[in-house]
Amino acid sequence: MDDKDLTIYEVGYLLVPELSEGDVSVETGNLKDVIASLGGLMVSDGYPKQIELAYPMRKSVANVWHTYTKGYFGWLKFEMTSDQTAALKEKLDQNKKVIRFLLIKTSREDTMSQKRVSTRPTKSKVPAEGEVVAEVSEVELESALKDLVKE
Predict the structure, then answer these.
(1) Which pLDDT score is estimated for 147?
(2) Rounded to an integer, what is the distance from CA 18 to the centroid of its chain?
(3) Rounded CA gap, 41 and 24, in Å?
(4) What pLDDT does residue 9 have?
(5) Burial 102-121 (b: 16+ CB within 10 A, else e)
(6) How many Å apart are CA 28 and CA 119, to the nearest integer?
(7) Residue 113's pLDDT is what?
C-alpha cells in the first residue's frame, strides 16, 4: 500500500445510552479494531461523552424500533484507502450499539471549528452623554405602533 493511496477520514459516532462506562470503552476499542482490520491507521480520537440529543433518534434493531434522546458521542480520525470505506460503512450500519455515524474526508490537522466573533460595530441603545432624548407620550407611541402595523 502506497502512502499516496491513503486518505484521512473522520467518523463521528453515537453509541446507545444504555452502555456502562466500561462498555463504552470496549465498544470504542471494537470500532478501532474494525478500522484496523480494514487496513486503517489511527491518527487521533475523541473519547465518547454522553450528550442530550437535539431531537429524538430512532433505530431499528432486530425489527424493533428504539427511540433515543441521549447517546455517547465520540469520533475517530484515521488513514485508510478509499476502497475500504464501503466495508467500514457496512460494519458500522450492522453494529447494534451505534445509533448513527457520519464518515467524512478530512485533513490530518486539528479541524475543530472555533466560534466566530462578530466584528460588526453594534448600535448603541444608550444615549450618549449629554444627548437629549425627547420623551414620547403614550398617545404618540400608540399612533406610531398602529402606523407600523398597517404597513
Answers:
(1) 84
(2) 20
(3) 21
(4) 96
(5) ebeebeeeeeeeeeeeeeee
(6) 41
(7) 58
CB atoms within 10 A of CB 46: 14
Residue entry with cell 477520514:
9
Q: Using alpha carbons, select from 44, 21, 20, 23 the residue that is nearest to residue 32.
A: 44
Q: Which residues of 31-40 are buried (b: 16+ CB within 10 A; e: fewer)?
A: beebbeebeb
How many other CB atoms are there within 10 angstroms of residue 125's CB atom?
5
Between vectors from CA 41 to CA 36 and to CA 47, what angle results, nearest 5°?
85
For the four alpha carbons of 108, 47, 11 and 84, in that order, the dihedral sign comes to positive
Question: Residue 60 corresponds to which cell in the numbers above?
Answer: 431499528
Q: pLDDT tens across 36-64, in order?
A: 999 999 999 999 999 999 999 999 988 99
Mean local confidence (pLDDT), 108-124: 66
Largest CA distance in the chain: 81
Q: What is the DSSP letter of 95?
A: -
* 116 or 46, higher pLDDT: 46
